């Protein structure tokens, strides 16, 4: 190794020790894993033993996760701290920086590169895949069964309510039928009216288009009457509030749907509770 690279490696090792402390020994219960993406953070925290997780993504503290994330090192998003940790497997999203992923592979690390799921079947497939990677397929099977049970409850709640629903978010963005939210609506039996606006993957709708469309319900990510910015203010426009007050809005927090994973069971149960509320 050239002296320059040797010095760099030593500096990285010293910095990592100062940040993470002594590196943990190899786990006796399964492979040691690093997660580079907040969505895989969420699934691994449910499936892996704590001793297996060497580090989580830099966004793990800012998103919904199961368990105490503060016990795990936070990664920078670069390759250096991952290389020092020497995991058996690095779990990453195909949206994570490609140059970082290629550098890790060039240094001999095993990468599991996952696409963003767009359907519930893809979500269940990724849960099983991560369960196999962590060495705990039984836990993955339990989470898939939990998701299937929640889906069955949601379908039962929707079975006699043929609602036309418009999934609406900041600045008038509508999630289309090809989106994950659109898939979630279709799986439960609710009708996504985005198609009537000509949106497949999604698009921006004007207030006039939404009012003219006359969906039965809006699906939004938060309730309340205070807007933190202009994007959120769109949802509180007097025209929308007139035709779609709280009694005509299904609220599912974005943290439950932004990643396809184990949290979707909770999202489906929230959907059932919201349908009961608006149906009164």
From TrEMBL:
Q: Which UniProt keywords apply?
A: Signal
Translocase recorded as keyword: no
Where does the signal peptide begin and end?
1-28
Tagged with keyword Signal: yes
Q: Name one Pfam family in it.
A: Peripla_BP_2
Q: Where is the Fe/B12 periplasmic-binding domain?
A: 32-280
Cite the InterPro entries for this sequence: ABC_Transporter_SBP, ABC_transptr_periplasmic_BD
Q: What is this protein called?
A: ABC transporter substrate-binding protein
Organism per entry: Bradyrhizobium sediminis
